[in-house]
């Protein structure tokens, strides 16, 4: 009779000790965060979660267990970030390149992703505890139907949350994001030109506009050719989709302005049909509808819903960006601890913030010069 009682007492005693250590750890963590808060705190943290498979191999775990351990590490990191007051967290969960892995491995990852996405809807999830809005960033059409539907449901359910934001990059590469943004920008610009042509005709300027409209249509066609030319030049992006956008047309040297002039000159030399009125019409078109600008492209980026990252962490000691947020990380320091992703914890996060604080003033000056 004594033995079961002792076991029960030992059990409750052990729970009490664990609770005590847990409370102490929480207290020390809050103290640490208060000290860190004396300096600038990043608004946006981005993570490349590298090393899950190596972690499983290192500990002789079954295939897939490394990613499960990585998910637990992610939950801990999110907790630390939101306790520290970091509003935006972006994680690189699944690259488009990952679809090239073995079909059974891809399916296993999709199943795990579906399970964890659905877990975000549970009442006790970190999303509900901290009022987190969730975005799934990337070409979601590449995902399986169940995963895509679950992702869309989570985004819809959390749409009114505003305390913090979690951005999960799935079926994502930066090159795909850039191509998508340029394509959408070109579509918008062509729509503007067609709408302008239509409104001019409807205003009764039929005779004068007839020739200008003919010219405009020729220009629209040549814009498409120009976009296609730029697409060919940008094949270094290695995207499976063709680019209908102007990669180099962001008002830089030898940008779209000069290419527009090339279109006009080339058209005139080939046809010999440009009158002064037609050229004037083209110039009028150009004034009313300026070339594609940087802001036009950036508003179509998948990541347009969040500010640029303040710091990027890649686990496992690798210094490659692996086609992740290439557009958004121009002035973002890279921190690459040797720990594999499931081993990432409070200390790696602390060192990353200290490094950020050390270089913060310099990076802020660089950003200000960029916008001058």
UniProtKB/TrEMBL annotation:
GO annotations of cellular component type: endoplasmic reticulum
Any one GO MF annotation of this record: ditrans,polycis-polyprenyl diphosphate synthase [(2E,6E)-farnesyl diphosphate specific] activity
CDD domains in alphabetical order: Cis_IPPS (cd00475)
Pathway: Protein modification; protein glycosylation
PROSITE patterns: UPP_SYNTHASE
Key words of the record: Transferase
Entry EC number(s): 2.5.1.-
One BP term from GO: polyprenol biosynthetic process
InterPro entries tied to this protein: UPP_synth-like, UPP_synth-like_CS, UPP_synth-like_sf
Described purpose of this protein according to its UniProt entry: Catalyzes cis-prenyl chain elongation to produce the polyprenyl backbone of dolichol, a glycosyl carrier-lipid required for the biosynthesis of several classes of glycoprotein.
Similarity annotation: Belongs to the UPP synthase family.
Record protein name field: Alkyl transferase
Organism: Durio zibethinus (Durian)
Gene: LOC111291708
